[in-house]
Each structure stands twice: as structure tokens, then as C-alpha cells.
Amino acid sequence: MACPVLLIHAENDFDIQISHSQRLFDEILEPYLEQYPYSGDKMSKVHLDTEEQRRVVAEVSAKRRQQREQLITDTIIPGLGKISRFSRKDKGDVTLLRSTWGGHNRIINYEGVMDVTRKVFEL
To answer: Most buried pick, 42, 59, 107, 114, via CB within 10 A?
Structure first.
């Protein structure tokens, strides 16, 4: 997708948990992080088979945490919530607004949400 992406989710949305939007944000970020050397099936096991596999996974996990810290900018806005953002070269920024208020159907009425939307899409 070659356009900015804005995900908006209220912390107090009890119909759809905020983890859904966080997962979407994380999935869009995934190609920009170092990949694990083992298949998803292998990674899904609670314990990897060898000490070497566990060491490799620990190293990749540490690199991924560092990359996330470098790629994602978090901004806390009192009274609004947390904005997480990262840039995709030639594709536009990806922004996740985790508002502290708004619920499932009322979030669009939240003034700060409109301001963030206007800024992300340069309206």
C-alpha cells in the first residue's frame, strides 16, 4: 500500500479490543524488522530444540527490539492518548493513535482524533 495508514482505536472500546489495531500496526511493521531464521511452526513451540536455536532466537529478538525503538516514534499527548508512528520509504507513514477515550462508536467525535487525522493526511 503506497499511502499513509492511520489506525485509530480507543482504549475503552469494549466491542473490539485495542489489540486488534496494535496487531495491524505490528504486521505492517514486520517487513522492516530482522526476520527469524526458523519457520512459524518451529517458532510457535514453547521450547526450541537446541541451545543454539534458543541463542539465535534471543539474538534476533534483541535486534528486533532495537529496530522497533529506532523505527517507531511514540508521542504521548495528555488528554488524548499515545501516537506511535513509523515511516515507510516511498509508501507513507503508518500511525497508530491509541486514544484514552472514545469507545467503539464515539471516537470520531473526539476533537484530538480529528486533529491527528488532518495532520496524517495533510488535510
So the answer is: 107
Q: Which residue has the cell 506511535?
A: 84
Return the amino acid letter for 12. Answer: N
Q: Are 107 and 8 in contact (CB under 8 A)?
A: yes
Pairing between β-strand 92-99 and β-strand 5-10 as defined by DSSP bridges: parallel
> Please, which pLDDT band fits residue 71 given cuts at 50, 70 and 90?
very high
CB 46 within 8 A of CB 60: no
Q: Which DSSP string corresponds to 77-93?
A: ETTTEEEEEEEETTTEE
Q: Residue 39: count other Cβ atoms within 10 Å of its Cβ.
A: 8
